[in-house]
Amino acid sequence: MRDLDITEVARRSGVPASTLRFYEARGLLSSTGRRGLRRLFAPDVLERLSLIAMGRAAGFSLEDIARMFAPDGRLRLDRKLLSARADELDRTIRELSAMRDRLRHAAVCPAPSHLECPTFRRILRSTAPAARSKRTPPKPRR
After folding, report:
1. Does the pLDDT of residue 132 top 80, yes or no?
2. Cβ neighbours around 55 below 10 Å, total
3. 142 pairs with which residues across the strands?
4. Are 106 and 120 in contact (CB under 8 A)?
5. Is residue 139 scored above 60 in pLDDT?
6. What's the rounded mean pLDDT across residues 40-56?
7. In which band, very low, low, confident or very high, does the pLDDT at 130 lie, cut at 50, 70 and 90?
8. Does the structure show a pLDDT above 80 at 2?
9. What residue spans define the domains of the chain?
10. Helices marked H in the chain
11. CATH class of segment(s) 4-67
12. pTM for this predicted structure
């Protein structure tokens, strides 16, 4: 397959040309040359852009993603880093699921006033700032 110019890559991937240029400046992509003023990319750039998008969706920084590629461009995933991120996502899912359940209870609580509901009061106590500070603080995102 022939090289793709930046317009074609942007069209096929849905990634704006400005982002492609930014990724190239950050070392995430490399062009193969130019046709006139337009950058050319190897066809496998589309797969690489999918990997970058997946990494971003998983919460990895561009620096983390850049380290997932060897200097020769081959993929080299740090399995420990991926596992740690999956563990972080599991914690986030548990926290968000608990919050969803609390909100659902509040939405359908039959008590005349939420403050009369023992379950709602327990929810308030468990989400109070003092209760939250006893929990392990979330890790900062990179």
Report:
1. no
2. 20
3. none
4. yes
5. no
6. 95
7. low
8. yes
9. 4-67, 79-134
10. 6-13, 17-25, 45-57, 62-67, 79-108, 118-127, 129-134
11. mainly alpha
12. 0.73
Contact 7, 17 (CB under 8 A): yes
CB-based contact 60:26 (threshold 8 Å)? no
Q: Which residues pair with 33 in a beta bridge?
A: 40
Q: Which residue has the tokens 């990494």?
A: 55
For residue 10, give the nearest of 45, 55, 59 by alpha carbon. Answer: 45
Q: What kind and span of H or E run contains 141?
A: none
Q: Is 132 exposed, middle or buried (0-12, 13-18, 19+ CB in 10 A)?
A: exposed
Residue 47 CB partners (closer than 8 Å, separation 6+): none
d(CA 67, CA 33): 24
